[in-house]
């Protein structure tokens, strides 16, 4: 269970950074005048993610911890249950928790879902995959 806890912490810490990254990528794809003009503009992800980490880090950690505990109790070792549940949780956080900026950027449900799926994969890779493979010390 120690690995699942570490995996939950890692996934929840990565969530705001991934959400900011996917927001920039979707903005780049859909806007005629995107905020990103060169590769260094992607560094804006760092302050945005750091600012958002305390804002929705604790609620995400609580709900993500319950989700990780449920997956552990159900002994889900496949990759898709954490990825799908992470996508659902990310879409929820993107659409409801961040609803104050949802009006300006309606793609938050999509970016939250993508970031949640990536975080679910991070959880699976650290907490489940490596445990079943036995490659970590």
For this entry, give a set of tags.
single chain; 137 residues; mainly alpha; membrane; transmembrane helix; transmembrane
Brief characterization of the structure:
With about 140 residues, the protein is an all-alpha fold.
Verbal overview:
The protein contains 4 helices and no strands. By secondary structure, the chain is mainly α. The chain has one domain. The two termini are 15 Å apart. The model has no long low-confidence stretch (mean pLDDT 81).
Write the layout of secondary structure elements.
Blueprint: H1 2-30, H2 45-73, H3 80-97, H4 108-133
Helix pairs in contact: 1-2, 1-4, 2-3, 3-4
Give the averaged pLDDT, no decimals: 81
Helicity range: over 70%
Choose one word for the global shape: elongated
The total strand number stands at: 0
The ordered H/E elements are: HHHH
Largest sheet: none
Q: How far do the termini sit from each other?
A: 15 Å
Overall radius of gyration:
15 Å
Poorly predicted runs:
none
Approximate strand percentage: under 5%
Secondary-structure class: mainly alpha
Number of helices: 4
What is the count of structural domains?
1
Oligomer: single chain
């Amino acid at each position: 269970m120690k690995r699942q806890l570490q995996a939950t912490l890692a996934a929840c810490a990565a969530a705001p950074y991934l959400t900011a990254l996917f927001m920039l990528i979707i903005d780049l794809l859909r806007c005629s005048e995107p905020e990103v003009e060169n590769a260094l503009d992607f560094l804006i992800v760092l302050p945005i993610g750091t600012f958002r980490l305390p804002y929705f880090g604790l609620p995400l950690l609580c709900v993500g911890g319950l989700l990780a505990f449920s997956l552990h109790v159900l002994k889900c070792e496949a990759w898709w249950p954490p990825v799908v549940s992470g996508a659902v949780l990310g879409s929820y956080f993107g659409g409801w928790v961040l609803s104050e900026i949802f009006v300006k950027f309606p793609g938050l449900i999509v970016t939250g879902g993508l970031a949640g799926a990536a975080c679910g994969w991070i959880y699976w890779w650290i907490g489940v995959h490596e445990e079943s493979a036995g490659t970590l010390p």
